Amino acid sequence: MADPQLIPESIRDESTLALNDLIERMGTLDLTPLLVYLVDDAPVSVLPHLAEQFHITGDEGWLLAASDADRRTLIKNSIELHRYKGTPYAIKKVLETFNLEGRLQEWWQYDGEPYHFLVDILVTDGREINVVDVSTSLRNMILEYKNTRSQLDTITLTAVQPTGTINISAGSVCGIFATTSAYPEPTFQPPARVNLVAGSLIGITVTTPSFPEPTFQPPGSINITAASLIGITVITQPHPL
């Protein structure tokens, strides 16, 4: 702001003085909220607008984002996701956005129909897994990032060291595997609760060493609805020593 005394007298009227005051106020404004492309620092209220701009709303990932951190990561990865859309890499990358490890099998790798594929999703962080609400969104997201020719056969969810509740929706297939060779005591902790709804299939396989003593703790409770199938298998192996 210019000192009012420095404004030439010929233009030093009320309008000029008001403009001078306005310029001073503008110089004190915090412009940080305008830096919306610094995604980690952008206000939460801006994130839906950025998602729309970068075309990752709905089944392109937004519906699966459970936290603001997930949404920010999705926005930051959006350009790369669209660059590789239609490739196996894009599917793996969008799953990584949600801290899920995805493995794709093409049809020739499992004797499937031509141009079909499977997706195996591995969860290793012991989180609570709830696919009742997100199973459809997960499938639709994969369909968004696959190419038009390819057909998705199944999605398999493998949870290693699950500790929370596992909810499995109709039509889902889930394998829970825990393999340990720890000596002298395996450290596998089963899920606290497994909820199954109609049409679900779950297999819980635990492999433990038989020396000095195999130990297995089943899930705290297993709730099974009509048409569900569950198998719990314990395999003991001699300790390599």
Topology (SSEs and partners):
Layout: H1 14-26, H2 47-53, H3 68-83, H4 88-97, E1 101-106, E2 116-123, E3 129-130, H5 135-145, E4 151-159, E5 165-168, E6 173-179, E7 193-196, E8 201-209, E9 221-224, E10 229-237
Parallel strand pairs: 2-4, 3-5, 4-6, 5-7, 6-8, 7-9, 8-10
Antiparallel strand pairs: 1-2
Helical stretch tally: 5
- Name the beta content range: 25-35%
The shape is rod-shaped
Quaternary state of the chains: single chain
Spatial order of strands in the largest sheet? 1-2-4-6-8-10
SSE series: HHHHEEEHEEEEEEE
Helix content: 10-25%
Spatial extent as radius of gyration: 27 Å
Structural class: alpha/beta
- How many β-strand stretches? 10
Regions with pLDDT < 50 over 5+ consecutive residues?
A: 169-174, 176-190, 206-216, 234-241
Give the integer mean of the pLDDT values.
73
Distance between the termini: 81 Å
Main beta-sheet annotation: 6 strands, mixed
